[in-house]
Amino acid sequence: MTTLFGFYVLVWPALTLGVLILICRAVLRDRRDAKRDNRELV
Amino acid sequence: MNNASLYQFSTLTVILLMLAFYGGTYLLTLGIRKKKEDADAFMVSNHRVGFGIGAASMTATWIWAASFYAAASSGYTYGVSGPIHYGLWGALMILFIYPFGRRFRKLAPNAHTLGELIHARHGSSSQLILAISNVLGSIISLMVNFTAAGALVSVLSPLSFQAGVIIAGVGVLLYTLWSGFRASVMTDFAQLVALMAIAVVIIPAVFFAMGGPTELVAGLDNLTPEQANFFSVDAILNQGAPFFVAVLAYAIGNQTISQRLFAVNEDHIKPTFLTATVGYGAIVIGLGMIGLMALTLGIEPMNGDMNNLIPQMVSGYLPPLFIALFFILVIGSLSSTADSDLSALSAIMMADVYGKNIARGKADPQRMLLVGRLTMITATAIGIVFASFSLDILVMLVFVGALWGAIVFPVIASCFWDRITNAAFTTSVVVAMVMFCLARFEWLPLAGATGLLFEVLASIGGGIIIGLMVFGFLGCTAGFIAGLLALVAMLVFATGFLRDYTVLLASLTAYGTSTLVCVVMSLASRQERFDFDTIGERVGNYHDVTPADDRKSTKPKTETGGLATGTLAGQR
Asked: ipTM of this predicted complex?
């Protein structure tokens, strides 16, 4: 029960961290592509 | 802990924190500033915003200050399942719109607002109904966000509520005014990174500071059986169901979402919206867990105000550095939504009001920019005034919610079914609003045959919501079957019961009535079937674009309100 509730609370910040890493990597890729194509990021 | 007061920053500290936040954000926008912004970029960037920036912007926009407070309140009120019933349905609002968004984008790749698409499909009256609902929604959102800033500043420092409202309003306007949507998406990324990083640290920090899983499980004895039940009917009916009903309405009625649908690279719409769904859900449900923690510890919200729950927990268990991080978290979330609202409002006034109804196809891009910036200034002033005087917006909120519900079917059907007419669109929304008022304010006694009539209309509304959701992902046949099954289920289980829940009954009635009137009038019409290919021809950019001189020309369009000969879509 303790493990289950610990997981239930902590899974959300873990997911948030995953999405944060995904977004940061994607933005770096977007930035590289924009530079290569000689256009602006936004 | 129950008697403890919140940690207080000094006036100087709060001013420095806000200066650092808004100053940093402003400096960030200097990097993307152009001497001459063009109208299209001001509204939707270059229609090629990448997956990373797009997902960050969508997530940051959808998370507003109320998301944290309401999720925590839900966790505190409904217990174990509470945060899920707030965060999950909010996240699904992002998810369920993307299949329709792809259709909107396919029909009008160069649109700036959903209203432009509807204008090309039907004409001014339908477009203006959509535009008005969007404007009211964004004004309410602005006001709520500025109010949250004022409340936060006043509870954590000696500064007044009004001072917080004004600093937030001016700060957001400062960095959005020049570059519009481009500034909004760029700063959304930075704000989201800060917001997520802080959430990742704060949630476990509070959790372990209060005693961790052992303490949480021990505190479950403080919960009622309903609060301890993950499948609590109470939570579903009072928190989950009203949100579920609003899933499509919020997404369709919100220009901040359509603006991003038209701005993101067309190939990236699906991953962008899927990532935003997960990101939003994770942050909001996670922070909602702090409400659950407070409940298990038996903490009472200070002054009976649920909005104090998170500040109380952070204040009570963590050192001042974390309280400063929490402060930035809330300011970041409300600012990212407020700048998106300003961008949305300016795009509506530029494209829907000026471009389509005042200039009537002869829009001057420079004048459009002026309209956009004046809109931002006016909207900020309205937001600050409404927030400062704590004006009661409940009636406005009720009407906007109903209007959004009433336009869902006509808007979606107009993009898929060639028989929907302008008269059917407009009439259905007006009739739906009248029926909504009759039910919501009980102007007619909801008993006997009248009660039954409204329950039948509400059942149709329920069927339509389920039908449209399934249709978006699985197509027409599956949507029709799901809608029909939901209708039958509603007729069986809701008859004689739903009339006791007037808010839900009225909302569903708005959906059902608009659908019924729209379908009947369209089927009865002898109007020629609509050719969807003409939408793309009627909705275009306002500036010339040439590969050699990317969006620097300011030559106004002279005929259709802007079909650019060398549009970015053409280059793709």
From this structure: 0.97
